[in-house]
Amino acid sequence: MPFRLEKRPEPSRTMLYLTPAAAVLLTMIVGAIIFSAIGYNGLGAVREIFFTPLTNSYKWQDLGVKAAPLIIIGVGLSIAYRANVWNIGAEGQYIVGGLAGTWVALATYSMSGPWILPLMILAGVVGGMLYAAIPAFLKTRLNVNEILTSLMLTYASVQLIYYLIRAPWKDPMGMGFPQTRLFAESARLPTIIPGTIVHLGVPIAIIVALVAWFIMSRSVFGYQMRVVGTAPHAARYGGFSENKTIWLALLVSGGLAGLAGVLEVAGPFQRMVPGFPANYGFTAIIVAFLGRLNPLGVIFAGIVLAITFVGGEVAQTTIGLPNAATGIFQSMMLFFLLAGDLLVRYRIRRTAVQPSRSAA
Amino acid sequence: MPNRLELSGITKQFPGVLANDNVSFAVKPGEIHALLGENGAGKSTLVKMIYGIMQPDAGEIRWNGQPATIANPKAARRLGIGMVFQHFSLFEALTVFENIALGMDAKIPSRELEARIREVMQTYGLLLDPHRTVATLSVGERQRIEIVRALLLNPKLLIMDEPTSVLTPQEVEQLFTVLRQLAAEGCSILYISHKLHEIKALCDTATILRGGKLVDTCDPRQETSRSMAEKMIGTGLKDIVKPDGRAFGDPRLVVNRLSTSRTGHFDVPVHNVTFTVRAGEILGIAGVAGNGQNALLDALSGEIKGHDREAITIDGVGIGSMDTTERRRHGLCAVPEERNGHAAVGDFSLSDNSVLTARDRLGMVMMGLINSGAARTYTGKVIADFAVKALGPASTAGSLSGGNLQKYIMGREILQKPSVLVVSQPTWGVDAGAAAAIHQALVDLAAAGSAIVVISQDLDELLALSDTLAVINMGQLSAARPVKAFSVDEIGLLMGGVHGEKEAQHAVPA
């Protein structure tokens, strides 16, 4: 039976806000079915992944720490995606931001002072921006698709970590381990709640989201991003340059990814290690969409995705779910979300049955 | 003989609007029947139901006396209903023949199809080389492809949706000859238009819709254009109040040898365009669509940024190399032809759409932040002054009907009191009442001392509105002359590219 998609005249506002919730719910249901079908405790998997991190108060600090980078990167991506600039390489910008911060930390190793951390953060932001500037340059000058360049640069940045921590930045006391030395006290992000792992990055993430929300809804910059993304032709008529917008979108999203990177290396890691790339940059794509490309929504979406990260680890130990299960749940969520968005904007119509020829 | 097509009690309800309310009329065999109405009167909905794109909620369609259910356009074509849409669906990179072959329901061997195409073209004088690429054809020629495509199916009813809006006067005459020949052979024609004098010249019967209801079925030859227009809009029609013998001030907009380069495959750049518009003057630029109008508007508005600063001057200041925003600051506002997605953002509120072009001229931005209160106030003023039918500044632009959106857009630019206003197709698809309001606003703006350029394909509009007139053809602009110095024939020849001998001598060798 042939089907076709038909554009709805006006997508329902309510449905637009309900799709994320529906996507999460569907992920749980389908996840439970799939994992049951392949011989795991499906209901248990959903419970451990989605509910244990919430009911077990000991896990709350983990949630905050995991959510912070997701929110910071997700906010940046939500701004770029509004402008239809598809920065898929936030992971690479996150890595380069972390590396830039590491460089400052290592260069100031023998020094101390309250200026070191701000300098590291600045370096991280600039690092992320510079790395995002490559796709921006290629896109605006040579019209190279930013999806490809930003994505491929991610793999280049991973190799950069491996090179730096094996040779020039290797810990002299590390017994040959490929990692840098532990940062000095002044280069570590302080915890804000004593006795927990909750570091300064968590409130920074919330502040970043609030500021971004204000800028996106009130400023000419936010207007520019929205109008270029929605109606590029009208944007040109209104006096907004498309190339400038591409640059701004990539620099802002790259800079925020870099910020997340430096906060991560100065906070939870406190040194550069091979395991630094944790797919935050990719997961933040889901966060941006789940948050409806709205910085306030990104806060909630970041927490939801953090739950799946923390819950995935719980499920590994309690019911022996493989590590990949987290990824499966996360990708299902993106899939249902995008499918839901499509159905909000379009309806599926069965192509009308052809009347018999005798009718004519 | 039974009626070819008979509608009785056709009703179609959309969420929030009754598009057709108990509409009944009949089309006789061989009759040319006009369907008249303002935008949003329900003409398109009605035609879509006849052509099977939509189904009526209530009422009956009878075809040759038999009740018929038209499930889809394919079924309509099988019954013998053909349609030529206002917007063509042609692939520019393919040939005439390939485009026709792609649109056929039945598979016909290409040699046979070509023979039939040539036969139809011969019979109706629709001469075209089937192997030419569509991109090289004029709009009138493209329309012929669509007509040939419809005629290949031997239709008994041909629906024409606003067919003449893009044609030169000569092309209109040719089209009418074809339509009259078809009618004489017994094919009925349902002719949708808002050009009343054409309906008077062509049609046997006119059915007038207003607000989804049938207002009147009349004989257009017994009516005046004015009486039909008044039936359409339901009230008396206002004339443009344009004082005769107005004096113009100093030159405000001076364009000197303005050229653009080709940006896309099929667009037409402008070449060495030169004209002057004085304070209080309305310059009309006539021409068939696709002759460089878009490039001219973009080059004036700043969307295409030039290199020669002095190519465009406003009150003596060279703005030729400035971008859109700077040109607005210097007093040049522009309205492009395409409303949705170019002049306005459909998904944005009207208030946000005001920010698009009025933010700098009206101080809606303070330190990078948008003063949404100022935008709302200004939008409210536009809505009130231009009688825009909208719930308020917060309604989305996309929720407005075409005519109302155009009133809003024109109002948004005019109330900024620009020293120079350049508009393209200011009343395209806009009903008579709204068009009169827009025309009056342009005349008033000129009276207040602005220089105005109106680019339009609607010759009636230009003749009524302009003080001086120039014709654009293949990117070249003829010399501007007072509108009274032109005859319609002369304009038509210029539109078709037949320049005077003097022009030919100046033609630039390729």
TrEMBL record, chain A:
The keyword Mitochondrion does not apply. The chain crosses the membrane at residues 21-43, 63-81, 93-109, 115-138, 147-165, 192-216, 246-266, 272-291, 298-319, 325-344. Its main location: membrane. It is found in: Cell membrane. Coiled coil: none annotated. InterPro entries: ABC_transp_permease (IPR001851). GO terms for molecular function: transmembrane transporter activity. Keywords: Cell membrane, Membrane, Transmembrane, Transmembrane helix. Pfam families: BPD_transp_2. GO terms for cellular component: plasma membrane. The keyword Metal-binding does not apply. It is a multi-pass membrane protein. This is ABC transporter permease.
From TrEMBL, chain B:
One of its GO terms (molecular function) is ATP hydrolysis activity. Residues 5-236, 255-499 form the ABC transporter domain. It holds the Pfam family ABC_tran. Its main location: membrane. Keywords: ATP-binding, Cell membrane, Membrane, Nucleotide-binding, Repeat, Sugar transport, Translocase, Transport. It is a peripheral membrane protein. SUPFAM superfamilies: P-loop containing nucleoside triphosphate hydrolases. One of its GO terms (cellular component) is plasma membrane. It is found in: Cell membrane. Belongs to the ABC transporter superfamily. This is ABC transporter ATP-binding protein. It comes from Devosia oryzisoli.
